[in-house]
Specification:
alpha+beta, Creatine Kinase, Chain A, domain 2, 8-stranded antiparallel β-sheet, two-stranded antiparallel sheet, 10 strands, about 45% helix, about 15% strand, globular, disordered C terminus
């Protein structure tokens, strides 16, 4: 499959708006970190070592397509422009670390983009499975199956005492990072997020922004994941995250109910104002678009806003990003030009019948 298919299409399988608790849990991700014996970690690689590892891993995965019942596309990261790398990051298909890598590396993507296997990121292998909604066990089963297939053919670096050996000590052990991407507008509005984050951290979990470590919680979207893997089984990690996620879901539902009960008119006004901005604005920054998307999503989930599909909002989260905007526009855009183009795309995607879009024409009489 052509790389352009992955770069030009903002829709991916985790954006379906399906799965358990999909009104709060947007997606579930399982990531496994693995390394091969006989090679240094990627941070210490020579270019020749990087090429050897890339060839070994990619050939095994491509040869196993029938067993995995999936078709994969091999993408050489070094052959991509900086913009195309950024687009893949914005779609959650590769990590920022792989995007900025200067050594031989690749990503193997399944046709539905639910699976991406990154080669020569921080570790030799990063298996990633992303499912819509709350589907920890389903995502784990798929990632584990891919891992088993690779392990039959590749010599994994494994220690009886420490488990799977990884570049970063926090991944040593199971090498498992399980995470959920959650939309938590009510907890943010009621100023409970700081307390929630503190409590989660004490339980051995970590809260990050939408694009992981170092990123902001754009549009009130947070990633909650396990912090370490050593000393815990995969089942323990998944059970702990499931339990904590269910508690956060309950708190978010309570906060939403409280907002509806205490000041329903104020809440509804805010949500519809945000819909109006997305529908008619001529300039939209990334931050404002994220904030308004969050409000509109909340309005849909509360039954206050009708006629807008959540999957469209999920798609908008990707195409509003700077990289995808410029890819879609097929030209480099300055910040204000991006804001203009972003607003135009929102109007088109929300299918606005707006006479003001007809530049140079007088408004029709009502």
């Amino acid at each position: 499959m052509s790389i352009e298919r992955f770069l030009n299409n903002s829709v991916t399988s985790w954006m379906a708006g399906e799965g358990e608790h999909a009104d709060i849990v947007m997606s579930t991700r399982i990531r496994l970190a693995r390394n091969l014996t006989g090679y240094r970690f990627p941070l210490s690689f020579t270019e020749n070592e990087a090429l050897q590892v890339d060839q070994a891993i990619s050939s095994v995965l491509l040869d196993a397509e029938a067993e995995l019942e999936s078709t994969f596309s091999y993408i050489d990261i070094k052959e991509l422009s900086a913009l195309n790398r950024q687009v893949l990051v914005e779609k959650h298909l590769i990590s920022p670390k792989l995007a900025h890598s200067e050594i031989a590396g690749s990503v193997l993507l399944s046709d539905d983009e639910a699976v991406s296997v990154m080669v020569n990121e921080e570790d030799h292998i990063r298996i990633q499975c992303i499912f819509p909604g709350m589907q920890l066990n389903e995502a784990w089963r798929q990632a584990n199956h891919i891992d088993d297939v690779l392990e039959k053919e590749l010599p994994y670096a494994f220690d009886e005492q420490f488990g799977y050996l990884t570049s970063c000590p926090t991944n040593t052990g199971t090498g498992l990072r399980a995470s959920v991407m959650m939309h938590l507008p009510a907890l943010t509005m009621t100023k409970q997020m700081d307390r929630i984050v503190t409590a989660i951290t004490r339980l051995g979990m970590v809260v990050r922004g939408i694009y992981g470590e170092g990123s902001e919680a754009l549009g009130n979207v947070y990633q909650v994941s396990n912090q370490t893997t050593l000393g815990k089984s995969e089942e323990d990690i998944l059970t702990d995250l499931q339990s904590i996620t269910e508690q956060i879901i309950q708190k978010e539902r309570e906060a939403r109910a409280a907002l509806l009960h205490t000041r329903p008119n104020v809440l509804e006004d805010r949500l519809y104002r945000s819909l109006g901005v997305l529908t008619y604005a001529r300039l939209l920054t990334t931050e404002e678009a994220g904030r308004c998307l969050s409000d509109v999503r909340l309005g849909i989930d509360l039954g206050l806003i009708k006629g807008v599909d959540v999957s469209i909002l999920n798609e908008c989260m990707v195409f509003m990003q700077p990289g995808f905007l410029q890819k879609y526009a097929d030209t480099s855009l300055q910040p204000e030009e991006r804001d203009v183009f972003r607003a135009k795309l929102f109007r088109e995607r929300l299918q606005v019948d707006n006479n003001l879009d007809n530049e140079g024409e007088e408004p029709h009489d009502v």
